Queue: 3 jobs
Job 1
Amino acid sequence: MKNKKLLSAALALTCVLTAGACGGGNGSSARPASENTAADTTAPVETTPPATLKEEDKAAIEEIETDFEELENKTVRLLANFDLNPAAGKPKSVALEMFETKCGGHIEPILCSWDDRYDKLSTMVLGDDSPDMFSAEDLDIFPGKVIEGKFQAMDDYVDFDSELWAPMKHVNDMFSIKGRHYIGATSTDAGVVVIYNKKTIEENGLPDPAQLLEEGNWTWDTFYDMIAKFYSRPDEKFGIDGWEFENAFAVTSGVPYVDFKDGKLVSNLENPSIVGVQEFMLKLKRNDYPVPKSEYGWSVHPENIANGKTLFFPQGSYVLFEPENKAVFGDPEDVMFVPMPKCPSADAYYLPSVIKGFSIPMGAKNPKGTAAYLNCVMTCRDNEKVKEIEQNQVFEDYGWTQEMYDMLLKTRELTEAHPVFEYFKAVNDDVYDCVLNPSKETYNAGIPWSETVEEIKYELQTLLDTANEKLDSLTN
C-alpha cells in the first residue's frame, strides 16, 4: 500500500484555492497547503491560532448573502492527518472564515497519522465517540469503506438536488448507492498534470504544450512526437520521469480499469479503450522513451527537468504550491504545466480526477455541522469575489504567475466537465494489489497487456463479484 500512502502525503500539500477547494472541500489531486500535517498522535490537540484574512476580504465575505443559521452544536470534529485551521502566517480559506462567522462553527481537529486513520476511526465508532467529518480526498472511502459500515449516507443533511449543489451533482451521483450519497464532493481537480520547463522546450525547438492545449492539439500524438524529437540515449535525454504516469495516462481514454456503474463494480481490463492505452504505453517503452528507473537507483529525478535532461514529469499539481519543490523544476519563470494529453479517439477530454470533499462517519454526533461547512464551501466555490481573494493568496504566498494560475483553472474546468475516477483503489486491498502493479508492467517492463490480462482477469472478477454481493445487501 506504499503508493496510496505517498498519494495521501502528496495531497496534503496542495493549494488553498477556493475556486477549486475553498479550504478543504481529490486526486488526488487535494488539501490546502495551509493545513498542518499531523505527527503520529491520535489525541485531540489545541488548534493553532488561525491566520486572519485582510479586513477588506473579511468585509467582502460578510457581504455574501446566505441563508445559513447559527449552529446549535458549533463544534465539528474532523479526524484526519491534517488540520483545516491554518498555521500562523499561512493563508486562511474563505470557506472556513464563512463557516466561523456565518454559522458560528469551529473545526476541532483530531489528528492521527495517515496510516492509523481508519484504525482510529473504527475505535472511535465502536466507542460511541465518532468524529463528524472525514476527508474523502484519498478516494478510498467509496465503495469499500461504505461496504464495511464506516460511513453513513449524507442525504438527510445535505440537499444534493438543491441549486447550491447543482454544479457538483454529476460528480456526487458517482458516489451514490441506491440513490444515497456517501461523499460530499465540492470540486474536482486533475490528479496528475504534466510539468515541464519552458526553456528546455524552446532550446529544443519544440512547440509549447500550453499553446498546443489552447489550439486543441495537446494529444497523445503531439506528446509522443515531442518526446521522439527530444530523446537521445547517448546524451541521456529521456521523455518522461515520475511515478504517477501509468495510471494517470490510462484514464485519459475515459475508461478506468475498474468502474462503478448502476450500483455495480465493473472490470474494464479488456475494454478497447484500455487496450489502446496499454498499446500506446508499450510503444513508449519499446522506443526507450521513459527514464530507465533501474539505471537511476529506482528513484525519480525531477531536477532533470531543470537541467534539460528530461522533457516531461507527470505529477500532482500540489508540488507546485511548495516553493522549494517548484524550484527543483527550474527557475520560476520557466516552470509550467499542462493537463495530461487527450486521447485522440476519445469523445471528450478526460483527465485523472481527484476530489475535494468529506464524508460523515457512522455515529457522528454533529452531521449537521459537517453539512454546514460543506455548504459554505459550495457557496464560496464560484463566487467571483472569493476567486479574487484566493487568486491573490496564490500569487502572494506561492509565487505563481498568471499563466500558471490560468492553466490551473483550465485544468480544473476540463476535469470537472468529464471526471474519471479509478475505483480499483477503493474496493479493498486485494483488488488494489490485483490491479495496481500489473497495470504498470506494460510501461515499466514492456510486458504485453494481453499477457497481464490473462493473468489477473479471473481473480479480479471474483473479487468484484464478492464486493458486488455486499453492495446488493447494503441498506444504510
Job 2
Amino acid sequence: MPVRKQIKKILQWTLMLLLAFVLLYFAFRGVKWADFMEGVRSCDFRWIAVSMAASILAFVIRGLRWRLVMLPLNPSITRREAYDGVTVAYLTNFALPRAGELARCGIISATGKATFESVLGTVVLERSWDMVSYLIILFIVLLAGESSFGQFVSNEVWRPAVDSMSYDLLWIIGIAAALCVTACILIFVYRRKLSRYRIFAKIFSLAKGLLNGLAAGLRMKGKWRFLLYTLLLWLCYWIMSYSTILAIPQVAGLNWADALFLMVVGSLGWIVPVQGGIGAYHFILSLAMASIYSIPQTSGVIFATISHESQALTMLLCGALSLGSIYLKKRKTEKQSRL
C-alpha cells in the first residue's frame, strides 16, 4: 500500500478515535461519580444477562437471514459461515468503523463459494430492508401514545404547530410541498445529465441500491421467512432495550414504548462513524433521556454505559470466537490438503 494511503488511513482512524473521546467527554461531563458508581452497583445484572442473550440471538437471526439472501449465489453456504461473517463484522467495526460490512463479505468470499462483489450485493439488500424497518419503527414510536416521546411530540410539537397555523402558513407549506414534488420529477427526468455531477451520482447510486435491494427482497424465494427473520431481529433489539430498563432502578419508570424509542435513538449512536459507537452512543442516549424524560444526566449515562458495554462485550466475545473458529477451520483444511 502506498505511504500516502497509509498515512490517510491512520489520520482517519485517529480522527474517529478523537471524536469518540470528545463525545465521551461531553456525555460524562458533569456526572456525579459517587452516584454513578452507586447506580452501577444497584443494577440487576440478571436482566443484563437477558439483554446479552437477546443480543446473541440477534446475531444468529441476522446470520440466518443473510444466508437466506445468499442461497441463490451458492446453496452450500452454511449457517455457521453466515453467522461468523456477521459477528466478525461487528468485531471489525471496533477497529475501523463501517468496515464491518466489507469484512463479512470477505469471510464468505474467502470460502470460494461466492465472489466478493456478489456477496456485497446481498449486504446492500439486507441493509435496504433494515433502513425501511427502522423508518417504520420510528413512525410507530411517533404514534405511540403510551411513550413519553409520543406525548412530547404530540403535546409540544404537533398540536402547537397546528394551532398556530394560519391560512397563509398552510399556503406556504402547500407551495413548498409542490416545489419538492416538482424538483423530484425534474431530477428523475434529467437524471442522466445530473449524474455527471459527483454529488448527484452518489445520491442516485444510493437510491438505486436501496430500490434494487427492496425489489430483490420481494422477489426472493422464502421472502416470508426473510420478513419473519426481520421481525424477530427487531424484537430482539427491543428486548435488549427493555431488559436494560428493568435492570436499572433509576429508569425503571419507563415502559415498553419508551424502550422502543430508546432502541431507535441508540441505533443512531452505533451509526456514527466512531469505533464501536464509543462516545456517540453514550452522548446521544443520555441527551435524549434528559431532553424527553427529564432523567438526570448521571442516570442517563448509567443506562447508556451499561447498555453499550454489555452489547460491546457480547460483540467482542462472539466476534473473537468466530475468528478463532475460522482460523482453526483453515488450519484443519491446510493440514488435510498436505496429506
Job 3
Amino acid sequence: MRRPTVLVALIAVAALSVAVKAVQEPATQKPKVIEVQKLRENLFVLTGGGGNTAVFITADGVVVVDTKLPDWGAPLLARIRELTPKPVTTIINTHTHFDHVSGNVEFPANVEVVAHRNTAALMKEMRTVTGFPPQEGNIFTEHKGRGLPTRTFTDTLTLGKGADQVDLRYFGPGHTSGDAWVVFPSLRVAHAGDIFPGKNLPILDANNGGSGAAIGDTLAKAAAGLKDVEAIITGHSTTMSVAELQEYAEFNEAFLSAVQDGKKAGRSADEIASSWKTPAKYTGYRDTPVERVRTNVNVVLGELE
C-alpha cells in the first residue's frame, strides 16, 4: 500500500532539516495536521510533524511507535483518540532523534516507554545530530525526566502475545547506535525508523553512535532477519518491501566502497563528496545535497582512520 506521490519525494535529510528549524524558531499558530494511512485493520501510519508514527491497536490498548516533534504529542494523541477509545499503554522509540521522541512528554505519565538501551542512554543527553546546527536544551530534562524510557532491551524483546505481539529487534549500529526495529508478526509489518528513512543517503549521526562503516551490514542483517515481513514502515517515506531494504543495504555498501576507494587514491573528503553520485542502477533514489554527502564521507573517513 502506497501513500501519495508527494510523500514519496520526502527524504529524511530534508525532513530533519525542517525539524531542526521548527525546534529553533518560535512556535507559530499554524495548525498541526496529522494524516492517517491504514495499513491493516488495527495498524495505522500517522504522518506529519516529524518521523512516521505507527499506531497498533491491541485488545488492551494502543502501542505507539515514535511520537514526533516537540508540541506534536498532544495533536498525535488526539488523532489516536479518533481511531480508538482505547488508552495508549506503550510508546516505543526507534532511536533518539527529537523528531521521533519529543512527543513522549505529552503522553500520560503511566505510559510505558520502551527503547534500545543505547537509545535510552542517548535520550538522557539529546545530543546534536551530526551535520546539523547545535541543538539547544533537552526536552526530557525540561520535563523532569518524563517520557524517558522505562524499559530497555539489548538484542530482542517481545511485548504481548498472539495477535497483539510486538517484537523488538536490534541488528547493529547505523543511523545511530540504538536503532530498534519494531515488528508486528501477526500482521507481517515492521517499523524501521530512520535507519531506513526512504530511498536516499541516510544521516550518519556519529554524535549518537551512527556508523557508515557498519550501516550496510546492519541493513543486510535486518533484511535477512525480517524475511517474513511483507511491508516496512520507513522513517520518512512510503512503506517499502524487504527486497527494497536489501537493495538499500547494497546502496549503503556502495557508498562505503566509494569512500574507501577515494581514501586509497589519496583524495580529500571534498573531492570524494563532489564526485559521488547515486549509482544509476538504484532507480527512484534521490540525489543528496553535497553538504550531506560531505558529512557522511567525513564520518566514514573518521571510522577508517
